[in-house]
Amino acid sequence: MARxxxxxxxxxxxxxxxxxxxxxxxxxxxxxxxxxxxxxxxxRARWIPESNxxxxxPGGISGDALLARLREQAAQFGARLERTxxxxxxxxxxxxxxxxxxxxTWQARAVVLATGLADRLPPxxxxxxxxxxxxxxxxxxxxxxxxxxxxxxxxxxxxxxTAHARFLRGYTADxxxxxxxxxxxxxxxxxxxxxxxxxxxxFDGVHCAWVVDGRCHAFDTVYPFLGCDTSAALARxxxxxxxxxxEIPVEPGQQTTGVPGLYAIGDVVSGLNQISVxxxxxxxxxxxxxxxxxxxxxxxx
Length: 301
Ligand SMILES: Cc1cc2nc3c(=O)[nH]c(=O)nc-3n(C[C@H](O)[C@H](O)[C@H](O)COP(=O)(O)OP(=O)(O)OC[C@H]3O[C@@H](n4cnc5c(N)ncnc54)[C@H](O)[C@@H]3O)c2cc1C
Fold this sequence. Notes:
The protein is an alpha/beta fold. It is about 25% helix and about 25% strand.
């Protein structure tokens, strides 16, 4: 049971146990707030073979190792971690009621949504193995540095790949576009190769290749830009009016617009999907909601 709460009752329920949710739990524990982390266990960070831009890890750290450290640290400060998927979130009195698929419920004075997003991946066999070895990469800000000067393919709809190719051109002169829909004119990228559209990506255990018109073009790495699905459904259930593009609007301090006590942090709300952004938003949310909850003076020890 979380500290200072009854069974199923907590000060704060954090939905999602990736870097954002776990960092919020660390801060909340150190603010002496009872906290439960309800996590389905599919953090994007688990895909990271080795992160080299995560502050404080000069030799790099894998996503799994980082998550294990964060879980240990959150538990150290009293957070209760539960593996489950929250399926319903409603306002209830002055707080919130959460429910999972097994009919378990939690009452919380405040809720932090840290549910992240799901990448749309190419329909390719062994896609997880390709990500694990870096043949397929999903985030140039995260790891384009590691493939500086290598042969890179940029895959997806024409409009998306031309926008990202410019950024990647800063890392390599050996760049090719692999369009899913049509090939246009990349005017500002005259030296970038454009391969025929409509092919398929294949992975041979080491490299990804674009197979099109009977030819196989291999790359050191391929970045797909096929979009993503954010998990904003719980926010909508709780009464948040999503933006026209389906995003959760938040105020400074990460509180959602229009629903006091409900916060959103990390990839589910960020425009820059990075661990450092997620943990920064977690700190802001924890301090903001701590100031909103009733003040609890410490009893003499
Ligand atoms: C291949 C790859 C490499 C990357 N490399 C880097 C890097 O080097 N540096 C960097 O800064 N970033 C990197 N990123 C991005 C980074 O992983 C994300 O920015 C980060 O994980 C976001 O944290 P988050 O907590 O917001 O979301 P997530 O880590 O995705 O966690 C969300 C959690 O919420 C859970 N959840 C969702 N819905 C529910 C629900 N209804 N009930 C309960 N739980 C739920 C999910 O199962 C998941 O565990 C990389 C991403 C990928 C895919």
